[in-house]
Amino acid sequence: MSIGIVVLLVIIGVIAGFAIGFFAAKKYLENYLKKNPPFNEQMLKTMMLQMGQKPSQRKINQMMTSMKASYAKENSKKKK
Description:
This protein is an all-alpha fold. The protein is built from three helices and no strands. The longest helix has 33 residues, at 3-35.
């Protein structure tokens, strides 16, 4: 084989590796965020206290439900 063909094959292999790695990492991250959302009840309590609101468990549950619904709705739009 000539050196030109070897270099071309290496370049094609590197580009294919980057593309496969990118899409695999993207899929993994989407699944991870779906299973482990980046917000929790303690974060909401802290945010509400910083905004000057008294966080009741009812308000926190409403906000969590709203955020999960919004996240699910956003993800369903992306899949279409």
